[in-house]
């Protein structure tokens, strides 16, 4: 019995908070540092929290009016040249999420994040549930990756 409690407790501790690892790519929010690594936290039912090392940024879910997901797919040419031609068969996918919202002054704002591969699906589903907005997919490949 103690073993079961330990396993469950360890699993919950490792699960962390709902959300995902992100990198802020850019947008209209001047207070956020471009190329900053952080974590997008969706655990709060009222607001989206993006936590970076030295700063946190929050947006009320009710203010979010746009969610867009897209991918950038690259072939691994450098790896193919340096390591093996088999890398030409591999593709590198980068996952991008745009969050649009209206700030307290009524101005439209946007934030673009690169999201970690293992976090994108859960993050999209949670954002749809919290905001009541549907994610707009940039193309059919993004739709397949985002919906599973």
> Could you describe the largest sheet, including whether it forms a barrel?
8 strands, mixed
Total of helices: 4
Overall pLDDT level: 80
Low-pLDDT ranges: 1-15, 75-81
* C-alpha end-to-end distance: 36 Å
Radius of gyration of CA atoms, rounded to a whole number = 18 Å
The total count of strands amounts to 8
- Topology pattern, helix = H, strand = E: HEEEEEHEEHEH
Which class best fits the helix and strand makeup? Answer: alpha+beta
In the sheet with the most strands, the strands line up as 4-3-2-1-7-6-5-8
The dominant shape is globular
Helix content: 25-40%
**Proportion in β-strands:** 35-45%
Describe the secondary structure blueprint for this structure.
Elements: H1 2-15, E1 19-27, E2 36-41, E3 47-52, E4 56-60, E5 64-75, H2 77-82, E6 91-102, E7 108-115, H3 120-131, E8 136-137, H4 140-147
Parallel strand pairs: 5-8
Antiparallel strand pairs: 1-2, 1-7, 2-3, 3-4, 5-6, 6-7
Can you walk through the features of this model?
By secondary structure, the protein is of the alpha+beta class. 27% of the residues lie in helices and 41% in strands. The chain contains 4 helices and 8 strands. It has an 8-stranded mixed sheet with strand order 4-3-2-1-7-6-5-8. A hairpin with a 5-residue loop joins strand 2 and strand 3. It is globular and about 40 Å long. Residues 1-15 and 75-81 have low confidence and may be disordered.
Nutshell version of this structure?
This protein is an alpha+beta fold and 148 residues long. Helix content is 27%, strand content 41%.
Q: Can you give keywords for this protein?
A:
disordered N terminus, alpha+beta, 4 helices, 148 residues, single chain, 8-stranded mixed beta sheet
């Amino acid at each position: 019995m103690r073993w079961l409690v330990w396993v469950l407790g360890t699993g919950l501790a490792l699960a962390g908070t709902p959300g995902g690892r992100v990198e802020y790519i850019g947008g209209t929010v001047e207070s956020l540092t471009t190329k900053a690594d952080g974590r997008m936290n969706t655990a709060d039912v009222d607001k989206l929290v993006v936590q970076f090392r030295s700063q946190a940024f929050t947006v009320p879910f009710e203010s979010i009016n746009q969610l867009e997901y897209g991918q950038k797919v690259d072939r691994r040419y450098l790896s193919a040249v340096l390591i093996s031609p088999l890398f030409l068969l591999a593709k590198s996918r980068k996952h991008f999420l745009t969050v649009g919202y209206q700030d307290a002054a009524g101005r439209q704002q946007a934030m673009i994040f690169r999201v970690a591969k293992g976090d994108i699906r859960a993050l999209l589903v949670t954002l749809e549930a919290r905001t009541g907005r549907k994610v707009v997919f940039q193309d059919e490949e993004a739709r397949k990756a985002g919906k599973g």
